[in-house]
Specification:
- By secondary structure, the chain is of the alpha+beta class.
- The chain is built from 17 helices and 21 strands.
- The protein is about 35% helix and about 15% strand.
- The strands form 5 sheets. A 6-stranded mixed sheet has the order 1-2-21-20-12-18.
- A hairpin with an 8-residue loop joins strand 20 (about 625-630) and strand 21 (about 635-640).
- Helix 3 (about 60-70) packs parallel to helix 6, helix 3 runs parallel beside helix 12 (about 455-480) and helix 4 packs across helix 5 (about 125-145).
- The longest helix has 25 residues, at about 570-595.
- The chain is globular and about 75 Å long.
- It starts with a strand and ends in a 14-residue tail after the last strand.
- The structure holds flavin-adenine dinucleotide.
- Flavin-adenine dinucleotide (FAD) binds near residues 58, 420 and 443.
- Flavin-adenine dinucleotide binds near residues 59, 61, 179 and 456.
Length: about 650
C-alpha cells in the first residue's frame, strides 16, 4: 500500500494513497438494497449447516444477528462477557425506536427518515447505508410486534408514537421508558429458541480478547473464560462483532459500567480500520455529576423533551434561588428562543452545546453551576399529573431516587453527558470491516449516524443490522467458503494469538505497582472529557495526546493487579479493558485534531459561525477517517473514504 506523510498540527502521520471503497451497489438510491438482495450470492440450506459463525455480543445487534443467522441454518456460537445475554447494555435504552411507518399521517416517509438522519448527522454518513436503514425500519416494528414486544398503543389500538430530537414528525415507537428492555426480551426469546434447538451455542462469561486471522481472513477468536481465567480458542468461517460502543473511555458516561472497547480495539490491532473515532455523542439530558468519586451517570431520556421545557434564569443573580421562586418572565427558555422551528426538540449536539453555553455564561443552576432546568409544570397543568406519570413515570421515579427531588413539584436539573459513540469499526455496505470475513454491527460499527446520532435511531440501527442486513450480506462472503471445511483451532495462527494474549496478561501482573486500573481509568476520562468532550481545540488535543502517552507509560510501570489469572478476577478484566481504552483515547484525540472543522458532536472551537454554531468544511472533510493500526498506538495510518452526496444537498444545518 502506497503511503505519504502528512502533518497534523505538528504530528507526523502517514496517509494511504488509495481511497477506501464502500462497495455500495450501483443504481438509484431507492433500488440499491433491493438490487443487492436480488443478486447477492446465496448459500444453500445444506451448505449453511456446514458453516460456522461467531457472534460476539448479545445486545440488540448481537442477539438479533445470532438468532437470525441460526434460524437461517448456520451454526452460530454467541459470546457475552455477561452472565446472561439479557444483561447487555441495550437493556438500558429508555425512550424508543424510530421507524418510518407514518402511522400518524404527519408527513413521514422512508425518504424523510433518510433525510433527517443524514442532516442530523451533519452530512458525515454514507447515503446508501442510511437509505437502507430507513427502508428496513418499518420491518423491525412488524418483527418486534410479532415477537410480542408490548409497544405503547393509543386509544384506537394502533401503536403510539412520540417525537425525538431533530425531526418534525412522530415516528418513535416506545414501551414506556423501557423500550430497550422490551426489545431485548424479544430478541433474547428468538435467541433462546435457537439455543434450545441446538443451532446456536451460548458462551456467557466469556470475553473476546483477540481476533484470529488465517490467510488474511477472520477465522476465530481467543476468549478468556471469566470464571476460570483460562484462555480458550474458537474458530468459525466468519466473525461478527456486535460489542457495543466505547463511551466509557470517558470514565463517566451513561453507558453500563462494563461497556468497553476491547473487542473492537483488538480487532483494530489485527487490521480492522477504526472509523471516525472522535465522533462521540454528548446527551443533553442527564443527571448532573454530584461528586469527585462518582463512577456512573444517569440518562434522563430524550423523550422527556416532548413535554419538558428547558430553561435557565435570565439573570445570573437568580441562579441560587429555588426554581419555583423564579418568575415566568425571568426564565430564559433558550432552546425555544434560539431554535423556534424545533424548540426543545433540537438534535442532541445542538441542545448540549446550548446548555454548556448557558452554564459558561454563569447562568447554570445547582451547587456546581453545571445544570439547566427541565420543567414539566406546563405539561402537568395542561395534561394532568396522571398523564405525565403514565408517559414518564419510571423516569421520574428514577430521578427522584437519585436526587431526592420530586420532578412533579419542581423542575429536573440536567446537564450533558457522554452517551453514545458514532465512531467504531469501519464497515463497507455489507457491514464487513477491512478484514475479510470480519463484520461489525450495532454501536460497534462506525454506523449510519455521521457526526451526530438522532434519538431513537441506535435501536433501529442495531436491529436493522442484526435482523435484516447481516443475514443477507454475510452470505456474500460465506458463499466462497462452502468447500473450506471446518476451521481447526490447532494451527500456528491460533497458537500465536493465545501466546500474545497470555503475554499481555503476564505483563500486567508483572508490573506489581501501586495504582489500580480504576484510578488510571478515572484519570484518562478526565483528560478525554476536558479536551475531547463537548468542545475541542487543537491546542487542547495536542496536550491531551501528550498526557495520554505519559499515562500509558505510567500504567505499564505502576499498575497493580491483585489476585491471579486462574480465578474470578474482575480487577484483571478491568486492567485489560483500561489498557485498550488508553490506546483508543489517543486515537480519538488524534482524529479530532486531524478534523479541522466542526460537525455534529465534534465541535472545534476554532471552527464556528458568528452565532456559535458548528462550521463544517465540506471541501476538505466530507470523508470518513478510517484509521489503520500502524504497529504502535501512536503511529496510526489514515485511510479516507470520500462521502458522495448524490441525493441530498449539503447545506448548513438549521433548526431555527
Ligand atoms: C441509558 C441509555 C439509554 C438509551 N436509550 C436509547 C433509546 O431510547 N433509543 C435508542 O435508539 N438508543 C438508545 N440508547 C443507545 C442504545 O441503547 C445502544 O446504542 C444500543 O443498545 C447498543 O446495542 P448493541 O447491541 O450495539 O450493544 P450492547 O447492547 O452494548 O451489547 C454489547 C454486547 O457485547 C458484549 N461484549 C462486548 N465486548 C465483548 C467482548 N470483548 N467479549 C464478549 N462479549 C462482549 C456484551 O456482553 C453485550 O452482550 C441508549 C443508551 C443509553 C446509555
Amino acid at each position: 500500500m502506497a503511503l505519504h506523510d502528512i502533518d497534523v498540527h505538528g504530528l507526523k502521520i502517514q496517509q494511504s494513497d488509495e481511497p477506501l471503497q464502500s462497495k455500495s451497489p450501483e443504481g438509484v438510491l431507492e433500488n440499491k438494497w433491493e438490487a443487492y438482495k436480488s443478486h447477492v450470492p446465496l448459500v444453500s440450506p445444506a451448505n449453511k449447516m456446514r458453516l460456522d459463525i461467531i457472534v460476539v455480543g448479545t445486545g440488540l445487534a448481537g442477539a438479533s444477528a445470532a438468532a437470525s443467522l441460526s434460524e437461517l441454518g448456520y451454526n452460530v456460537k454467541v459470546f457475552t462477557f455477561h452472565d446472561s445475554p439479557r444483561r447487555a447494555h441495550s437493556i438500558a435504552a429508555q425512550g424508543g425506536i424510530n421507524a418510518a411507518k407514518n402511522y400518524r399521517n404527519d408527513g413521514d416517509s422512508v425518504y424523510r427518515l433518510f433525510y433527517d438522519t443524514i442532516k442530523g448527522g451533519d452530512y458525515r454518513s454514507r447515503e446508501p447505508n442510511v437509505y437502507r436503514l430507513a427502508e428496513v425500519s418499518t420491518h423491525i416494528i412488524d418483527q418486534c410486534v410479532a415477537q410480542g414486544v408490548p409497544f405503547a398503543r393509543e386509544y384506537s389500538g394502533l401503536l403510539d408514537n412520540r417525537s425525538f430530537g431533530g425531526v418534525q414528525v412522530s415516528r418513535t415507537f416506545y414501551a414506556r421508558g423501557q423500550t430497550g428492555q422490551q426489545l431485548l426480551i424479544g430478541a433474547y426469546q428468538s435467541l433462546s429458541r435457537q439455543i434450545k434447538v441446538g443451532s446456536c451455542t451460548l458462551y456467557n462469561r466469556h470475553e473476546m480478547i483477540d481476533l484470529v486471522k488465517v490467510d488474511g481472513k477472520a477465522r476465530g477468536i481467543i476468549a478468556r473464560n471469566l470464571v476460570t481465567g483460562k484462555l480458550e480458542k474458537f474458530s468459525a468461517h466468519a466473525v461478527v462483532l456486535a460489542t457495543g460502543g466505547y463511551g466509557n473511555v470517558f470514565y463517566l458516561s451513561t453507558n453500563a459500567m462494563h461497556c468497553n472497547a476491547t473487542a473492537a480495539w483488538r480487532a483494530h490491532r489485527r487490521g480492522a480500520y477504526f472509523g471516525n473515532p472522535c465522533f462521540t455523542q454528548i446527551h443533553p439530558t442527564c443527571i448532573p455529576v454530584s461528586g469527585e468519586y462518582q463512577s456512573k451517570l444517569t440518562l434522563m431520556s430524550e423523550s422527556l423533551r416532548n413535554d419538558g421545557r428547558v430553561w435557565v434564569p435570565k439573570n445570573k443573580a437568580d441562579v441560587a434561588k429555588h426554581p419555583n421562586d423564579i418568575k415566568e418572565e425571568d426564565r430564559d427558555y433558550y432552546l425555544e428562543r434560539v431554535y423556534p422551528a424545533f424548540g426543545n426538540l433540537v438534535p442532541r449536539d445542538v441542545a448540549s452545546r446550548a446548555a454548556k453555553n448557558a452554564c459558561d455564561d454563569g447562568r447554570g443552576v445547582g451547587k456546581s453551576g453545571l445544570a439547566v432546568y427541565l420543567d414539566f409544570s406546563a405539561a402537568i397543568k395542561k395534561l394532568g399529573e396522571d398523564k405525565v406519570r403514565e408517559r414518564y413515570g419510571n423516569l421520574f421515579d428514577m430521578y427522584q431516587k437519585i436526587t431526592d427531588e420530586n420532578p412533579y413539584k419542581q423542575p429536573m436539573r440536567i446537564y450533558p453527558a457522554v452517551h453514545y459513540t458514532m465512531g467504531g469499526l469501519w464497515v463497507d455496505y455489507e457491514l464487513q470491516t477491512s478484514v475479510p470475513n470480519l463484520f461489525a454491527a450495532g454501536e460497534a460499527n462506525f454506523s449510519d449516524h455521521g457526526a451526530n446520532r438522532l434519538g431513537a435511531s441506535a435501536l433501529m440501527q442495531g436491529l436493522a443490522d442484526g435482523y435484516f442486513v447481516l443475514p443477507y450480506t454475510i452470505g456474500s462472503s460465506l458463499a466462497k467458503d462452502i468447500r473450506t471445511g471446518k476451521i481447526s483451532t490447532e494451527t500456528p495462527e491460533f497458537d500465536e494469538a493465545v501466546k500474545v494474549s497470555q503475554e499481555r496478561i503476564d505483563k500486567l501482573f508483572a508490573i506489581k505497582g501501586n495504582q489500580s486500573a480504576e484510578s488510571f481509568h478515572r484519570r484518562l476520562g478526565k483528560i478525554m472529557w476536558e479536551n475531547c468532550g463537548m468542545s475541542r481545540t487543537a491546542e487542547g488535543l495536542k496536550g491531551a495526546i501528550e498526557e495520554i502517552r505519559a499515562l500509558r507509560a505510567e500504567f505499564y510501570s505502576d499498575l497493580f493487579v491483585p489476585g491471579t489469572q486462574f480465578e474470578y478476577n474482575p480487577e484483571l478484566d478491568k486492567a485489560m479493558r483500561v489498557a485498550d481504552f488508553i490506546e483508543l483515547g489517543e486515537l480519538m484525540c488524534l482524529d479530532a485534531l486531524n478534523r479541522d472543522e466542526s460537525c455534529g458532536g465534534h465541535f472545534r472551537e476554532e471552527f464556528q459561525t458568528s452565532d456559535g454554531e458548528a462550521l463544517r468544511d465540506d471541501d476538505d472533510f466530507a470523508y470518513v477517517a478510517a484509521w489503520q493500526f500502524g504497529g504502535d498506538p501512536s503511529t496510526p495510518i489514515l485511510n479516507k473514504e470520500q462521502l458522495v452526496f448524490d441525493n441530498v444537498k449539503l447545506t448548513t444545518r438549521s433548526y431555527a
